[in-house]
Amino acid sequence: MTDEDLFCNHCGGEAWEYELHDGKCVSCIVNDCHHSNFDEVDSERSYKNNFLIINYVCMDCEVCWTITHKLDNGIKSMYHHENCNDDDIYQE
């Protein structure tokens, strides 16, 4: 460990100083967020195959997910975030 190594105040995990925001690592920020402040960033429609894919991003923690609609069924993807490991994000 070097002088630049710090620890998350929430989970105790190691993190670089630039990765911490108010003492929390990105994984803790994402996991503590309710993802209620989200926006649709784009969508893809295919009328031939009867599907609609909508891509969302949480405006608070920047986690992303997609929802795929085919006919009447909706399938939500796992959460993903460019700055933390997908396996570290709590999935609902």
Could you tell me the number of beta strands?
6
Summarize the main sheet: 4 strands, antiparallel
Rg (CA only): 17 Å
User: In percent terms, what proportion of residues is strand?
Assistant: 35-45%
Average pLDDT confidence is: 84
> How does the helix and strand content classify structurally?
mainly beta
What is the helix tally?
1
Distance from first to last alpha carbon = 34 Å
- How many domain units? 2
Tell me about this structure.
With 92 residues, the protein is mostly beta strands. The chain has two domains: 1-32; 33-82, no CATH class. The protein is built from one helix and six strands; from the N terminus they run ββαββββ. The strands form two sheets. Strands 3-4-5-6 form a four-stranded antiparallel beta sheet, with no helix packed on it. Strand 4 and strand 5 (64-70) form a beta hairpin.
Key phrases:
92 residues, mainly beta, elongated, 6 strands
Compact description:
This protein is mainly beta and 92 residues long. It is built from one helix and six strands. The protein folds into two domains: 1-32; 33-82, no CATH class.
Give me the secondary-structure topology:
Layout (H helix, E strand, L loop, with lengths): L4 E3 L6 E3 L9 H7 L5 E9 L4 E8 L5 E7 L2 E4 L16
